[in-house]
Design goal:
By secondary structure, this protein is α/β, with parallel strands linked by helices. It has a single domain, classed as Dihydrofolate Reductase, subunit A, CATH 3.40.430.10. The chain contains 5 helices and 8 strands; from the N terminus they run βαβααββαβαβββ. Strands 4-3-2-5-1-6-8-7 form an 8-stranded mixed β-sheet, with helices on both faces. The radius of gyration is 17 Å and the shape is globular. It starts with a strand and ends in a 13-residue tail after the last strand. 26% of the residues are buried.
Length: 206
């Protein structure tokens, strides 16, 4: 199975609390809800298209518990995400959670268990939210693609998507789109180690 990360970020890389002011106030974060003013029909359609590719959700404990609290409350039959979010298999990477209440759920102990799951055939394992987990998986070389929704916002505070340990990662941009409300939809495939070079003039690029 492919492991993909779907994540909402600000221009300065903050991924905490995109959906509402009280979504995630940990560590005193008071700027939640920064994505919502920029959402539009194009964003909703692309996010739905991405979710169509999922065979399961790969979540950290914090995100799993927040989703387990919030998604079952979304009962509008016209909502493009709720039914799939509530019925897809959930794989929760946690060393403290014993079992999940938002079913179907399987608890995985550590990144090594993700590697074993990834080796099986199937559709995408999608990381949603769970910035620490996504960061750890990328650092461990287990991520195949990243889908980022970049909001035209700078917060200067909050938990960032990528700041943990691991080898530098190279990425290849495969799709990009700007919505009318200013969101950048960026899809990258991982491309081995990050490349480096020294500038020797423009002739090499012409």
């Amino acid at each position: 199975m492919k492991v993909t990360i779907t994540q909402f970020v600000t221009l300065d890389g903050v991924s905490q609390g995109p959906g509402s002011p009280d979504e995630d106030t940990s560590d005193g974060f008071a700027h939640g809800g920064w994505l919502v003013p920029h959402m539009d029909g194009t964003f909703v359609q692309r996010a739905s298209d991405w979710l169509d590719l999922a065979g399961g959700l790969l979540l950290g404990r914090r995100t799993y518990e927040a989703f387990a609290r919030d998604w079952p409350r979304v009962t509008d039959p016209a909502d493009p995400f709720a039914e799939r979010m509530n019925t897809l298999p959930k794989y929760v990477v946690s060393n403290t959670l014993r079992e999940g209440t938002w079913q179907p759920a399987t608890v995985l102990k550590g990144v090594e268990a993700v590697a074993e799951l990834k080796a099986r055939p199937g559709r995408e394992l999608q990381v949603h939210g769970s910035a620490r987990l996504g960061d750890a998986l990328l650092g461990a070389g287990l991520v195949d693609a990243l889908r980022l929704v970049v909001a035209p916002t700078v917060l200067r505070t909050g938990r960032r998507l990528l700041n943990g340990q691991g080898a530098p990662s190279g990425l290849r941009l495969v799709r990009h789109e700007a919505t009318k409300n200013g969101l950048l939809l960026l899809e990258y495939e991982t491309a081995g180690p990050a490349r480096r070079a020294g500038y020797t003039g423009t002739a090499a690029f012409v």
